[in-house]
């Protein structure tokens, strides 16, 4: 009897242990299943978030203002690169051309602010250079420069020719304001028939009187030199006048005419300082 109860107790104890092991295994399986389920849910949630984020970025990039910002950013970078290269390439050229541009700007400002004075001084300087060139061509190696003669030429350019050129070109501009081909030919004709011969007579007469010549000597000089000078002037000045009247504004026309007159003045100063006709006749 005692052995039967003891065996029954042992069997009951084994059953309880077996049940506890089964229960423990079931709990472990449930925990593993719940962990796997949690991991799957977390992975699905992560993939969903990533897909939504990518979709949001694509929608944002497809909007017009976003593309505009990108284009503006690229354009800004392009401008910065181009401006840096332009600054580096133009710095040397701007520094080299600053002096000439500064002088031209100053001269044009003087022409507008003090036109008669500026044009007269310019004409005087051109006459000085032309007379020195004429003396260099005609004198021998042993002769020295006639500075009194150069002073006469400078005074004529400063006090006579410079102011008259200013008023003559302004008068032509008011009389014929257009710059077409027909008007240009009209200005050329008036210059060759009125202004040119008048200034040639004044030039020869004034230069001769400053050298102490008498009225008869001045008349003899005009008789000898005036016709050849006018003939050569007709050969030289029409093309110069055409360029001056046709292509340049009125405030620059005296400067252009003076530039052309450099070569002409070399000839005129030579003619004006030839020997007296009376001395040649004797």
From TrEMBL:
Pfam families, per database record: Mpv17_PMP22
Record protein name field: Uncharacterized protein
UniProt record similarity statement: Belongs to the peroxisomal membrane protein PXMP2/4 family.
Annotated keywords: Membrane, Transmembrane, Transmembrane helix
Location (main, coarse): membrane
Record has rRNA processing as a keyword: no
Transmembrane helix as UniProt keyword: yes
PANTHER family: 22 KDA PEROXISOMAL MEMBRANE PROTEIN (PTHR11266:SF94), PEROXISOMAL MEMBRANE PROTEIN 2, PXMP2 MPV17 (PTHR11266)
Membrane topology, record value: Multi-pass membrane protein
Assigned GO CC terms: cytoplasm; membrane
Record localization: Membrane
């Amino acid at each position: 009897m005692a052995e039967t109860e003891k065996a029954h107790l042992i069997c009951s104890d084994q059953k309880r242990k077996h049940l506890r092991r089964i229960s423990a295994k079931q709990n472990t399986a449930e925990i593993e299943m719940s962990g796997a389920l949690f991991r799957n849910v977390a992975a699905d949630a992560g993939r969903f978030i990533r897909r939504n984020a990518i979709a949001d970025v694509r929608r944002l990039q497809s909007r017009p203002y976003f593309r505009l910002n990108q284009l503006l950013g690229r354009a800004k970078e392009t401008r910065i690169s181009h401006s840096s290269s332009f600054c580096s390439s133009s710095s040397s050229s701007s520094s080299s051309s600053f002096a000439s541009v500064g002088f031209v700007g100053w001269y044009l400002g003087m022409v507008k602010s003090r036109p008669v004075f500026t044009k007269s001084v310019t004409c005087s300087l051109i006459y000085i250079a032309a007379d020195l060139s004429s003396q260099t061509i005609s004198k021998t190696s042993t002769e020295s420069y006639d500075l009194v003669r150069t002073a006469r030429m400078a005074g004529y350019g400063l006090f006579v020719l410079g102011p008259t050129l200013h008023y003559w070109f302004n008068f032509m501009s008011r009389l014929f304001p257009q710059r077409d081909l027909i008007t240009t030919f009209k200005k050329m004709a008036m210059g060759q028939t009125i202004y040119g011969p008048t200034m040639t007579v004044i030039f020869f007469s004034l230069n001769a009187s400053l050298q102490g010549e008498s009225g008869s000597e001045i008349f003899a000089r005009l008789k000898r030199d005036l016709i050849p000078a006018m003939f050569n002037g007709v050969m030289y000045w029409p093309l110069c006048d055409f360029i001056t009247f046709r292509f340049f504004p009125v405030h620059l026309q005296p400067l252009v005419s003076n530039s052309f007159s450099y070569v002409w003045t070399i000839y005129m100063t030579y003619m004006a300082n030839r020997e007296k006709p009376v001395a040649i006749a004797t």
